[in-house]
Amino acid sequence: MTRLRTTAMALAGTAAMFALSAAPAQAAPGDVTTTCASSATPAGYVDVNWGYSPSCGTQNFAPNIKQIKQLTGLPVGTVVEACGSTYYPAGWVATASYYSSGCVAFPNGGFNNNAWTLKRVS
After folding, report:
1. Where does the UniProt annotation place the signal sequence (predicted)?
2. Cys-Cys crosslink for 85: which of 29, 63, 71, 105, Cβ 3.0 to 4.6 Å?
3. Angle, vertex CA 65, rays to CA 87 and CA 23, nearest 5
């Protein structure tokens, strides 16, 4: 019984890890998805928030998950808030930069500007 429970927990943990680390498939414009920080932010997305989850495999409380937002397909004139941990796509410009506690991607990152207000211009 213990072996079955251990196997079930391992499979559940693996499934949760895969669900968090898989790139979003066919996300609609503006959709936000959570992923492990170890996976690269896909083209057309920006990071919008960082946090911690034990499901992404680290034993400390450093940021290891991120929420990413799909920008591809949003209309010209759209304004979004994004973390400065990724580059924004072509057709978007930064109109402001500021500090956001939700965008702290590294421990001891200080209070420097780490986020942008972005606007779609083309």
Report:
1. 1-27
2. 105
3. 65
Structure confidence by residue, pLDDT tens digits, 22-32: 555 678 999 99
User: Hey, what's the torsion of the CAs at 118, 119, 121, 122, to 10 degrees?
Assistant: 70
- The Cα 79–Cα 61 span in angstroms is 31
Q: Rounded to whole angstroms, what are the CA distances from 12 to 16, 17, 24, 33, 72?
A: 6, 9, 20, 20, 32
Q: Per-residue DSSP letters for 16-53?
A: HHHHHHSPPSSPPTT-EEEEETTSPPPTTEEEEEEE--
Q: Cα(120)–Cα(122) distance, rounded to whole angstroms?
A: 6
Q: Average pLDDT of 5-20?
A: 39
Count of Cβ atoms closer than 10 Å to residue 116 Cβ: 22
Q: What is the pLDDT of residues 38-62, one digit of tens each?
A: 999 999 999 999 999 999 986 788 8
Q: Which of 120, 65, 117 is nearest to 91 (CA)?
A: 120
